[in-house]
Automatic annotation (TrEMBL):
Membrane topology term: Peripheral membrane protein
Gene assigned in the entry: Snx11
Domain of life: Eukaryota
Protein name as it appears in the record: SNX11 protein
Family the entry assigns: Belongs to the sorting nexin family.
A GO CC term assigned to this protein in UniProt: endosome
Organism, as annotated: Indicator maculatus (spotted honeyguide)
Length: 156
């Protein structure tokens, strides 16, 4: 079984405003039975990765969860070097996570990687309080072709 996960295409959102942030495209391609959709493409920001790591730690028991790249205490201008370093760190984090059987069993991880649900929507879905099951949410996103539209746009 092969799972390829790529973190790419960092984009500054709300540039020039006090609430600007960078989000990253996460492209997943797999033949693993663990995943509902075999390919997906979503955008996530750093604080969503922080949330995911916290949830994985809470649910993994004694299994160590990989580290995230550090948070910049002062975000001076948006240095390309800092963004690229963070992108690489986020990719290494996800590569290690998807190789770990225990972490792979967490449905929050699947919704994070394979749906565009927000963090509160992921929580509601996992707790059975959302309009869809975890599988339905992933399939709904996969069928909407959102992921493919994003992936196709970036091809040269």
């Amino acid at each position: 079984e092969v799972t390829t996960v790529r973190v790419q295409d960092p984009r500054v959102q709300n540039e020039g405003s006090w609430n600007s942030y960078v989000d990253y495209k996460i492209f997943l391609h797999t033949n693993s039975k663990a995943f509902t959709a075999k390919t997906s493409c979503v955008r996530r920001r750093y604080r969503e990765f922080v949330w995911l790591k916290r949830q994985l730690q809470r649910n993994a028991g004694l299994v160590p969860v990989p580290e995230l790249p550090g948070k910049s205490t002062f975000f001076v201008g948006s240095t390309d070097e800092f963004i690229e370093k963070r992108r690489q760190g986020l990719q290494q984090f996800l590569e290690k996570v998807v190789q770990n059987v225990v972490l792979l069993s967490d449905s929050r991880l699947h919704l994070f990687l394979q749906s565009q649900l927000s963090v509160p929507e992921i929580e509601a879905c996992v707790q059975g309080q959302g309009p869809q099951t975890v599988t339905e949410a992933i399939l709904h996103y996969a069928m909407s072709n959102c992921g493919w539209a994003q992936e196709e746009e970036s091809r040269p």
